Task: structure prediction
Amino acid sequence: MKFQRSILILAVAAALSSLGIYAASAQDADAPPRQTWSFHGPFGTYDPAQLQRGFKIYREVCSTCHSIKLLSFRNLAEPGGPGFTDAQASAIAATFQVTAGPNDEGQMFQRPGQISDYFPPPFANDQAARAALGGKLPPDMSVLAKARSYEAGFPYFVFDAFTMYQEDGPDYIHAILNGYENPPAGFVVPPGGQYNKYFPGGAIGMPKPLSDGQVEYTDGTPTTVDQYGRDVAAFLMWTAEPTLNARHRLGSKTLKMASREATHLRELAVRPAPLEIGIENCSSQTHSVRLVIRQRAANDPF
Result:
């Protein structure tokens, strides 16, 4: 009884602590709204069309400041990704200039990218990035969707454990891109900053990067900031976890095999043992016999 009471006290303390953390974080920034993602849950998969649109947003907007240095051009043509062909990935690579060398004179040089190359960064080094952007260093976006998160608080984290919700990173990215607005009364935005209701502290150094109609879609998808945010967040989730489709497919197969095995074992447990028919001698003097029918024991090997 004392043990159960201790467990209850610890649970209540954890809940109150979570509520306190959530309240504190809510004072700093609004909680990002949860979105619906095709890759959510143990059976979710990426939408190749959405990944291609998200790559378009990164290429035309985000790549001017942010790198994705862990991604190579060949990844664009791998299964489970945006669905580009090898020829398309090679053509994309050729539009980028990468640093290669040294040549015969010992000098590094620029050349068109190849499918085996990694995406080149927008700046030569961190110092060059800070010098160009007022002292700020934009984060690399390779694993941004897994690195960024937010505190959901109690009881949401309990529900997340059962629903396997792991998309708070894409939620956060989408929210930041849609969170630019005029500051509330009394809020002082520091020089060079912008107000964003979803950014911790409210003041973000990155200027508003997207506006409606800025990037053209050819598949009829709405060209709104909301849609841009969804698409680029999905793309960045893929760059952070490019094997998600394969992992979910393997998990699905494993669950199906485990389910079939459990069903088979259950059938064996309830299946009656086979009947055994035999003949026994009743009397050696009269040479009489009798027919015996019995149920074979479960552990009888014969």
About this structure: DSSP finds nine helices and six strands in the chain. Residues 1 and 7 are 10 Å apart (CA to CA). The longest helix spans residues 2-28.
